[in-house]
Amino acid sequence: MRLISSIPRFAALSLALLFAGQALAADEKQLIDSINLYRSQVQRCAGQPAGELPPLAGDPRLALSATSVGNLQQAMQSAGYPMVNVQAISLSGPRDAPAAMKAIQESFCQVVLDPQFVDVGVSRDGREWRIVLARPLLSGRLGDTQAEGQKLMAALNTARSQPHQCGTQSFAATTPLAWNAMLATAAEGHSRAMANNNFFDHKDREGRTPGDRAELAGYVGQQIGENIAAGQDTVGKVVSGWLDSPGHCANLMNPQFRELGAAYAVDPKSDAGIYWTAMFGTQ
User: What are the residues whose beta carbons fall under 8 Å from the beta carbon of 2, sequence distance 6 or more?
Assistant: First the structure.
């Protein structure tokens, strides 16, 4: 009889542990979502403006123990993550994801707004949190910049062929973009400038805007838009990140845009390694 009566107690314990694990996982996902929402909006960090950034991709290999104090690089190697750069944030005290996000905004905004990072992992043990941001080694087998630009346009046109929700905006499926060589020249120049000069911004080091660069390339358009990305080494990752970012998503789904030029550039000495530019236009 004792053996039989013990079964429900074990079952109840297992369910309690399961629900606790689900709650922890929900908190960790909520924090990643909050970080990405923060990155998707123009911010002011350490007295400097920070532009809109694509979302970080959650990577379970980066969910390192919140209570371990070992060598971070060794932990990354053990997890099988081929990182180039990594940074960890340790928090002690936040009771939930909103409290953890508040602490990040107050003390670690420069880390989560660093455009070189593309992946994130969060772990929690009680009130101990660890947030790991990283950039992996470039692993994609990329063709020349024009060929990859054409692939990017094809992927964007696939996205435009379906309706999308971009933040609070709903977009119906729309017409495909046509390749424009002048926009491609402007896009390639900006990607190269970002890579060689190690910056990530729509405004270049000479203060030129996307419209300025398009005009210098010979494109006279009624409307110009631009999406940029850094760190992602495949077209698929770039487009996925843009679709998950309300501002980037709205740009690529904008039915008023008719043409596109796109390109990437690589510089191993730069923080992000690889930079992408997609320039949208309407003549």
Answer: none
